[in-house]
Amino acid sequence: MTEGTVRPRQPSMVDVARTAGVSAQTVSRALRGAPNVDPETRRRVLAAVDQVGYRFNSAARTLSSGRSHTIGLVLLASGGYYSRSAVTAGVEAAGAAAGYAVNIAAIAALDTGLMERALAKLADQGVDGFVIAVPLISVTQKIEDITRDIPTVTLDGSRTSGARVLGIDQQEAGRIATQHLLDLGHRQVWHLSGPDEWIEARQRRQGWQECLAAAGIEAPPALEGDWSPESGYRQGQIIAMIPEVTAVFVAGDEMAFGVIRALRERGRSVPDDVSIVSVDDIALAAYCHPSLTTVRQDFYRYGAAAVALLLHGDEADVDASVATASLSVRASTAPPRRL
What we know:
By secondary structure, this protein is α/β, with parallel strands linked by helices. The chain contains 12 helices and 11 strands. It has helices spanning about 15-20, 25-30, 40-50, 60-65, 80-95, 110-125, 140-150, 170-185, 200-215, 230-240, 255-265, 300-310, and strands spanning about 70-75, 100-105, 130-135, 150-155, 165, 190-195, 225, 245-250, 275-280, 295, 325-330. It has a 6-stranded mixed β-sheet, with helices on both faces. A 5-stranded parallel β-sheet has the order 2-1-3-4-5, sandwiched between helices. Helix 11 (about 255-265) links the parallel strand 8 (about 245-250) and strand 9 (about 275-280). It is elongated, with a radius of gyration of 24 Å. The model is unreliable at about 1-10 and about 55-65 (pLDDT under 50).
């Protein structure tokens, strides 16, 4: 190619869709041989392929004769760095062991439009299945359509009608954490929640509220963070100025680290003055000071189990414990000084 020459743009799946008068997702389904495509629609798509000169990419060619041996992983780019890394490592390790590559699409925010585009992009790459680790509270019809045609496992969020859901009961996690503090003798439990648009945050908060209500205790106003240690630190400074607070359920480990620092700087000891319990049990939880009492989620095992479910469905050998909430009791919780 000589200098200044522009390479002609190759026809795309969008061009095929426009010519056939259908959506790009319908083109993708037709070229993959999905069973729910009308024969007449499939004929129009194939005719449009010839008309515009569309050339299948390598993934599409593989699918046309079998499988692409590729898994699509959709992640949220913000919130929970450690959990996101562990899920990715689990998916990649289990995928590699089964001979599958992993294509990753990270979305910048909890937005259904971003989710639609990420799934459509991975579908166009010819993935055999999706692992979705994005906690959308609701999904669109377009998301439903894409995940209906491609096997999907979701990790604690973005529930679609055809997807398998993998993860602990988040309401139960909230109840377990709160009940632990009540069992220690605390008469009230405050709560630092995750962002309200996250389904896990809502469910953990609901578990906290239900546990207090069952004990005849009116829940105080919940504080809200964004999962980051910084937001935990900011809210921890507020908590430290409320002298009657003796116990706090924090919705995530990383926020709990920030709360503990803020309390220490304000002269309040954990757990002598304030007990802290959290959710996640990331690797750092056992090594902070004091070590953190937290409800365990094994994100690496989630990722690996999701791949097993994609490959083997209901016959997958997935240990039930991976989806069972359990409390790791450490040094950040203790009975209150004064009952």
